[in-house]
Amino acid sequence: MNQPKTQWNVIDLAFFFFMLVIAIILLSPVFWLVSASFQGSGEIFKVPFKWIPNHISLDNYINAWNVGKIGEALWNSICVSLLMLVFHVFLCTFSGYVIVKHSFKYKNILIMFILATMMLPQEITFLPIYNVVKSMGLINSYLGLAIPFFYSGFGVFLMMQFARSIPNEIIESAKIDGSSEFSIFLRIVMPMMRSSMAALSILAFSFIWNEFAWSRIAIISDSMRTLPIALSFLAFSSDNSTNITALLPSSVIAIAPVMILFFIFQRQFIESVASSGVKG
Question: Where is coiled-coil annotated (predicted)?
Answer without folding.
Answer: none
